[in-house]
Fold this protein.
Amino acid sequence: MSQPVQTRPTVTRESARRYVSRFAGASVVVLGDVMLDRYFWGDVERISPEAPVPIVHVTRKSRRLGGAANVAANLSALGVRSEVVSVRGSDREGREIARMLARRGIGGEGLIECPGRTTTEKVRIIARSQQVVRADFETDDALDGTSCRALYDRVRALAASADALVISDYGKGVVTESEIGETIAEWRARKKPVLVDPHVPHFDWYRGVTVITPNTREAQQAVAIDYRKGKNPSATAFDVLGRMQLEALLVTRGEDGMSLYYGKRQEVHIPTVAKHVFDVTGAGDTVISVLAAGLATQVDFVEAVVMANTAAGEVIKEVGTSTLTADELVAAFE
């Protein structure tokens, strides 16, 4: 039988401030697929005479880090030292990502250049805070042997000095079945937390990690956790917990908050704190960043999830990927 379900665990502003004060002493490694998010902002005043599509008069442009790079940017904003272990192309977008990481003080020694590979870029056109269209430039080809060995040698070596590992798997080729199991084992043997933002087809590769953070759709597609009326998501979640030898499974459920399954059949359901939702892009990156910062500094698991939930409620108020500073996170607790 499950333990009694908590529905409203709380963190006070004072305890949040105390937890956040530890972050500057933490070091987190982010392994995964880096991306460049490029935005074109403007207004729509008419429909194109060439096709039934809106004409966006672009008034400004911006660029932001995406994917694993956005996880590292979130960690950096919180005051956590971080390093990205990934690959980029020898193209303009790859160089931009490297420069943007360096400006934020994020370690880039593990960002390996792969000639001939396309750096993932997502171009979004936004009109009056609404996304009109997105264009993706990317490759999901497997890494060449030399790059793969260099990348995984680096992430395994960092297990000796860093406090936690985040695997940000977008399925673009960085996370490989042949290497990820040994990498997880290396970090877990040192009793370091390993957190995974999953790619559905790779779910079985994450056996033995500390926590996996799928959203509702990913949880249903990957392991049949179903929150529809009449279903029993808890029973399925605990089966997954045991079969995959996880410490916890955190399902992010949008307007329904988050559901955490952990320990000896314990579960906690945390309601959303979001009052206004403009864009959920990058919210999962923020969740896993705050959770990693918490686990890296020995914050209680449930309280770390509450902090992550609160952080997500803040970043989705903005259009596009965004980060939250430590002070902003503390201020979000009423």
